[in-house]
Structure formats: C-alpha cells, structure tokens
Amino acid sequence: MRRPAGTRRRSAGGLAARTGTIDAVTTATRAQPSRVRRRITSLEVLCALLVLALALQGWLNRVLDVPALRTGSTVFVAVCVQAMPFLVLGVLVSGAIAAFMPAAVLRRVLPRRTALAVPVAGAAGVALPGCECASVPVARRLMQQGVPPAVAVAFLLAAPAVNPIVLVATAVAFPGRPEMVLARFVGSLATAVVTGWLWARLGRPEWIAERALRRLPATEGGSRWAVFAETARHDLVESGGYLVIGGLTAAVLNVLVPSGWLAAVGGQAALGVLVMALLAVVLALCSEADAFVAASLGALPLLPRLVFLVVGPAVDVKLIALHAGTFGRSFAVRFAPLVFVVAVGCALAAGLVFLS
C-alpha cells in the first residue's frame, strides 16, 4: 500500500534532521581538544634521583669511597663553585648589553679601525671584575652587537687577567714581589692584544658559529627588561652546561697527572715553562685563585710560575669547552692553540723584562 505523499515528506524530513544531529555531534566530538599526555620534566627527574640517592646512601658511600674519586669530585666542585658566581655576573652583563646598549653606542665608543680598537678593548677588560667564564658570554654579545670578532677576542682574553681583583690576589699571593704583579699584567694584556691583532689578520668569519654572529634585533623600550631576563637565562643555561663539562675534564686530568712530576722539573727552566703551561691548561683554575696555587709551588722559579698565571686565564680545558659551545668547534680548535703559543711567548717576554 502506498504511503501518502505528506507522510513520505515528513519521514524524509525527520531522517534528514536525525542525520544532521548525528553530523553535528560527530563534528563537536572531533572539535574537542584531544588529551595531551603529560611530559616528565627535568625537575621531577632530579627529585627522583635525589630520593633514590637517599635510599641507597649507605651502598653509595661504600662504592664511591675511593681516594681518586674523592679527589676528582673535590676538584670538580671547586672548579664549578669558583666559576659559577662570575659566570652569573658575566651573563648579567651580557643581558644588559643586549637589552640596554644599542649597537650604535658601541660603534661610537670603539675606534673604527680594528687595529686601534683591539688595544682599547683589551684595556677595557679592567672594568669587568670576573674570571674567564664571565667574559665568554660578554664577548659573544659584543659580536652580536656588531663589534668585530678580533676586538671581542681581545676583551675575552684581557678581562679575566688584568682586572683589579686578579692583580690584588696576585700581590697578596706574592708578598714583596711587585714585579710579579707587573709582569702578569703586562704579559696578559700583551696576550690579549697580540691575539686580537693576529685574529684580525688570520681569522675567518666562517670559523665562528652563525649563532654567535647573528645580529640582535632592535628592542622597544617596554620590552628591554624581558630581553635582559631572557638573554641572561639563555646564556646561563648554555654556558653552565659547558662549564660542567670543563669541570669534569679538569677533575679527571687532575687525578691522572701525578703530583711528583713537578719536583722533577723544578731544576730545568725550559721544561718547567712547558710543564707549567700545560698544567695551567689542565687544572682550569679560576683566575682569582690561580695565584695562590702558583705561589705554593716554591720549588719552581718565578718564570715558569708566571707562565702558569698568564696561560691559565687565556686557555684551559674549561674554556675550550665554553668556547666550543659558545662560538663553535671550528673556532675552538683554531683559537686554543693560537692563544697557547701567544700566551707562552708574551709571558716569557714579560718575565725576561721584569723578573730577570
């Protein structure tokens, strides 16, 4: 029996309505945001490790109670604790340069010719009372503000070695020896200036990582504090990781290098200079503390100890790691040997003039 036309139309309309309702529910269901799986953060991992360490404290004490391991851990903690306050100071200065110092100001302060700007930047290192870790982020920020790499390199080397804190520490460590303070100042400043000139002559832009040369965008007045905070945070996280790597390297090498080797080279000046230069690279001491270590090595003449004081703030395993992470590995593998040779030469020249 045929159904009336009106009934067929009502049925078709009802079916269409039900289909529309189903489509709407399906669309709404699809539109609902999917649940995002919660990720485990580094803070939670750290808390779990701390709880595990507390639970296994007795077993860890028995396993890790090894003299060499205790020595290595002491050196690692000492390197990081010495360097971290000055690294924080450096990243704060770096953030201030990025946020509050326009590139035009730097270009007006520094001479236009790189050959003249290099010694000016070296002398400006007196203004930053920090160690070598503090000068790394500042040097990178100077490059990002348009300062030539050779000029930034001169500041990088001079700041940790010629600032007043280092010179006063040297005077305290070597009482009655003002010529040692003067020799260190002249040797370190000469290292910075000569290296800057050589880098201006021989350096290539492609040797430095692009991230270290990327120009900073201009910032508006309202966002300068945000730029300062973000820049300091980024530099601290990045440089701090490589500081840990450098500290671990210094700790391992301190354990492996026998202390009796120093007594064997005490009577040989040439060998003493080479050994002390290499020891400065290996120990990775903070520039504010290395004078006291050098003063304690009384079996060596003053000249090898001066080489130790000039080379240490310029190049060591901690700095090599920081340079590789900040400026790139291509920069680090070329810069470290150059600085080592220049620092040894300038230290010998300063020693022959002031200590003979």
Outline:
The chain is mostly helical. 77% of the residues lie in helices and 0% in strands. It is found in: Cell membrane.
Number of helices: 18
How would you spell out the order of helices and strands?
HHHHHHHHHHHHHHHHHH
Major beta sheet, specifics? none
What fraction of the residues are assigned to beta strands by DSSP? under 5%
Shape: globular
The total strand number stands at: 0
Structural class from helices and strands?
A: mainly alpha
**Rg value:** 30 Å
Distance between the termini: 127 Å
Low-confidence stretches: none
Q: Percentage of helical residues?
A: over 70%
Family: Belongs to the UPF0718 family.
Protein name: Permease
Membrane topology: Multi-pass membrane protein
Keywords: Cell membrane, Membrane, Transmembrane, Transmembrane helix
Task: Note down, in words, how this protein is organized.
- The protein has 356 residues and is mostly helical.
- Helix content is 77%, strand content 0%.
- The chain has helices spanning 5-31, 42-55, 57-64, 67-100, 103-109, 114-124, 132-144, 149-162, 164-173, 178-202, 210-213, 224-256, 261-264, 269-283, 290-296, 302-311, 317-327, 329-354.
- The longest helix has 34 residues, at 67-100.
- The radius of gyration is 30 Å and the shape is globular.
